[in-house]
């Protein structure tokens, strides 16, 4: 098929733009030049000349660039709004400044979505709109596909995800989210650096998956004879090796991968923070986590107050609430629940409230299910839920006051988990026993159970000092700040192919 035949198959607007492209090239015009003499961003122009009166002429000449977002074509005067990475700016193109040929070329050659460069004088229109009166212009990148209609934008949420680059072009909120994410990540990283923690990078390809209960992604490495590897599900076990090695304060913020469901709060690939500090416990990690969140929200939003629908929450509170798992479940059930409550009695409570339970679950798992069904969605103000069952926390130190509990908290806010922390289990004998139990579950077909990691256990045998550890999902953090779902906080969430 010839080029002309291919173009005839295109939708009309794309065909017209391709024809313009061909014509420009035939006329010796490069529609994709290597650069343009830009002297200022649109935001810099707006800041410098913010106080100009209507109808002012500065005599200052600048070079600006941007994508044409709006265009009004007149006889002797044309207006356009161009957008660069810093914002929008109006340009004006007049017959007396440009001449007949150049103005006619603007009207004929430029489409919405084209990138252009403008050299001209900074002025204000009679209505007071800061503008650049063009002395010359140039197409810097021809847009071959039409932009979505101005007011509707990409109305289909699925299209917004699949065509994120178009969403960013037309949607102010999408660009805002990108900036919020960047500010959040930077603030979190700065917080831990200032606390004296060393930032490291640990393997994402691992021979054994561990550190969490989750289904991994599998792959293999040809250079090692097809050896099976896993994309990591957690950062934990390698950071603990570093603590054994003498790095007493350590953190990493990077990708984890879990081969599980995708929904409004989960993506198979997500950004995780984990931090470990020696001679801290889970209470100390709660203090650090609260301050980290408070630092990050102000950096991201300029305020500590976040809005989720009808809820307005000030994250700047001096002390976030701390409750216990068993205490909160007891209050919700109207019955005292302790680690001594029998499994039979817990099942009766579950049946009375029509809460599903699995015969394989022990009492600790069932109590945790009560919390997730009855309480978690009601916690809007971020709250540290303390002291989880030993049964559900295989890497966590036993509670100093109750051996059936662990020193673990989950941070719950806006109805979802925002982080977790432990007083870490550093006893290599007890850790081996628990991981052996996990490996038996894995051998029995539990795809989420951890494998026995002999290298990690060997590291613990070199003695790991008392340590507190915490983890927080960066995507969840941004969801907490903005009230958006995970697909809006990630620039390119995983989607099914069309």
From TrEMBL:
Occurrences of domain Aminoacyl-transfer RNA synthetases class-II family profile (ranges): 180-497
What are the protein's UniProt keywords? Answer: Aminoacyl-tRNA synthetase, ATP-binding, Cytoplasm, Ligase, Magnesium, Metal-binding, Nucleotide-binding, Protein biosynthesis
UniProt binding sites for Mg(2+) 1:
410, 417
Recorded hits in PROSITE patterns, A to Z, give: AA_TRNA_LIGASE_II
- Sites where the protein binds Mg(2+) 2: 417
Question: Pfam families, alphabetically?
Answer: tRNA-synt_2, tRNA_anti-codon
User: What broad class describes the main subcellular location of this protein?
Assistant: cytoplasm
Localization, UniProt: Cytoplasm
Per the record, the GO terms for biological process are: lysyl-tRNA aminoacylation
For this chain, one GO molecular function annotation is: ATP binding
Cofactors demanded by this protein: Mg(2+)
Co-factor note (free text): Binds 3 Mg(2+) ions per subunit.
Residue ranges annotated as transmembrane are none
Family named by the database record: Belongs to the class-II aminoacyl-tRNA synthetase family.
Whom does it interact with, and what assembly results? Homodimer.
Name the chain's protein: Lysine--tRNA ligase
């Amino acid at each position: 098929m010839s080029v002309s035949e291919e173009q005839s198959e295109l939708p009309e607007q794309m065909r017209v733009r391709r024809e313009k492209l061909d014509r420009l090239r035939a006329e010796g015009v490069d529609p994709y030049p290597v650069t343009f003499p830009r002297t200022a961003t649109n935001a810099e122009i707006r800041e410098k000349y913010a106080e100009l009166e209507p109808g002012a002429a500065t005599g200052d000449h600048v070079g600006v660039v941007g994508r044409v977002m709006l265009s009004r074509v007149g006889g002797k005067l044309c207006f356009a709004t161009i957008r660069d990475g810093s914002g929008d700016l109006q340009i004006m193109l007049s017959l007396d400044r440009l001449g007949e040929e150049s103005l006619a070329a603007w009207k004929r050659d430029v489409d919405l979505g084209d990138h252009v460069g403008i050299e001209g004088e900074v002025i204000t229109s009679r209505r007071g709109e800061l503008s650049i009166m063009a002395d010359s212009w140039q197409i810097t990148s021809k847009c071959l596909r039409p932009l979505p209609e101005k007011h509707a934008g990409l109305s289909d949420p699925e299209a917004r995800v699949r065509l994120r680059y178009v969403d960013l072009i037309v949607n102010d909120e999408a660009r805002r989210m990108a900036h919020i994410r960047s500010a959040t990540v930077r603030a979190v990283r700065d917080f831990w650096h200032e606390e004296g923690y060393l930032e490291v990078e640990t393997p994402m390809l691992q021979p054994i998956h561990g550190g969490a209960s989750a289904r991994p992604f599998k792959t293999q490495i040809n250079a090692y004879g097809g050896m099976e590897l896993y994309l990591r599900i957690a950062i934990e076990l390698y950071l603990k090796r570093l603590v054994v090695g003498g790095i007493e304060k350590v953190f990493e913020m990077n990708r984890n991968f879990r081969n599980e469901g995708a929904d409004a709060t989960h993506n198979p690939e997500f950004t995780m923070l984990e931090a470990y500090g020696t001679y801290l416990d889970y209470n100390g990690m709660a203090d650090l986590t609260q301050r980290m969140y408070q630092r990050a929200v102000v950096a991201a939003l300029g305020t500590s107050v976040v809005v989720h629908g009808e809820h307005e929450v000030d994250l700047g509170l001096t002390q976030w609430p701390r409750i216990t798992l068993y205490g909160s479940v007891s209050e919700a059930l109207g019955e005292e629940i302790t680690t001594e409550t029998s499994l039979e009695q817990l099942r009766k409570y579950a049946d009375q409230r029509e809460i599903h339970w699995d015969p394989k679950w022990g009492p600790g798992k069932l109590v945790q299910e009560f919390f997730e069904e009855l309480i978690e969605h009601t916690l809007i103000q971020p709250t540290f839920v303390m002291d989880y069952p030993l049964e559900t926390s295989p890497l966590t130190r036993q509670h100093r006051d109750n051996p059936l509990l662990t020193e673990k908290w989950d941070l719950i806010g806006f109805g979802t988990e925002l982080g977790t922390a432990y007083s870490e289990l550093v006893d290599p004998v007890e850790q081996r026993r628990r991981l052996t139990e996990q490996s038996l579950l894995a051998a029995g077909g539990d795809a989420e159970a951890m494998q026995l990691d002999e290298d990690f256990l060997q590291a613990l045998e070199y003695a790991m000092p008392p340590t507190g550890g915490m983890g927080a999902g960066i995507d969840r953090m941004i969801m907490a700040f903005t009230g958006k779902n995970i697909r809006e906080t990630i620039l390119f969430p995983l989607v099914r192919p069309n």
